[in-house]
């Protein structure tokens, strides 16, 4: 008893406020202080270090990829048969100005294709023939003569390399390129034809800006990048003053692979870190200022004050939201009561909120459950009363007396020579026997069809074979269960109203098909049809509608209601009719009692 009271006291609104105050204010503040004390400069420095290592690794891979593209482009030109053919036949066309111009343009066009589709970034490709021809994708208006070019250091070094690639930096005033840009240049000597037949120098010049992002070029983060050759010469950098220069030896030694070294650079304390390109003897180095670390520490302190302020604001918001813990469950309970008022008995409210609200919600759910059970009991009692009424209607005539009388009439007719009358009485007796022999309300479609055939035989005897009954039903559908006397009242309605009680000939067709888990059984006639006014009277959802056809007190609405009593409101009759064309009554039944193959 005491434990129950203690549990309830901890679930009250006041206790919830105290719990939230501890959970969302005191505990977070304590955690925040602990985290702040555990935060150290070494942890932040390690984070910066790992970030820079990842940056260098990513950048080195990108640079290597672009260098590979330059090498692939040079190989493509060196292996081009057409260029080999044109340059090899130089003596044949050098004196024909027209052909000379055409062939030069053809070679330049090939170089331009390589530049546009293979060369990464913006740059120029130049092919220098030692016999006096220059093929270039760049403008040659300010270019040097062949003799002047042969006196350049890079040209002599390329010839000495004897076919190997020679790399050099062009910080400014680059040959065959824009003078105000810096370039990473690659030159190699191509040999075509027989030995010393003729030689060509292939020169690639790629802007160093192609290797750097816009932020790195602008030095937005204060980081300086240097791509160094084996001798320490700077090939690529966002510090243009260093391109083509050698990095000081103390800085070169500080550029250890994946190691951070503190240095003085340009009068500022900072860190140097190196990263060796995996497939070249080049090194990518990065310099960053110590102020970055100081800024990170200052930012961490600012974040601390910001978080503290956010927690204060969050506390205010949580106090405001706390009221929702009470009002929201009550609001759900209110909506549920409204839904119950509209007839929704399946509504249930989730238990939430303080103890008082949970108790109220629990009582509401129990009330709805008891109300639903009471309504279900009333429905069962109603079904029993309807079934009893139906059985009482069937039992109004003493079956034994009726069968004995009909048997006497039949033999009297035979003895009098009226075989036609005897046959009618015999079929009527069989029809009534089927009607009375089943005490249960559900029978198979097969039994219903037998009952319907006897009824049609009697009508044809009466009206001189005016009616034809056609069955188009799957064999398996005949094992479906339907309420007794379902088909006969529908067919009788067709005869009485569609064929005017024998005044016209007609055909009645029974069809069936599966639809999902249901079976649709349709009764079609080609009679007079139903007028729109009469169709309005056949609205089965009207409680005052008695139905159109009567036999022993059972009409179409009675059939519709009995189907719904057995199977639910989604089943029953649907009537469609066209005046002077016919009427179709569709019966929707669940597929109980038989397994149907869907057509």
TrEMBL record:
Pfam families tied to this protein: HAMP, HATPase_c, His_kinase
Gene Ontology MF terms: ATP binding; phosphorelay sensor kinase activity
HAMP domain segment(s): 324-376
Membrane-topology descriptor: Multi-pass membrane protein
Entry EC number(s): 2.7.13.3
Spans through the membrane: 20-38, 304-326
Residue ranges of domain Histidine kinase in the record: 418-593
Coiled-coil stretches noted in the UniProt entry, renumbered to this chain: 368-395
Known catalytic reactions: ATP + protein L-histidine = ADP + protein N-phospho-L-histidine
Protein name: histidine kinase
The organism of origin for this protein: Paenibacillus thalictri
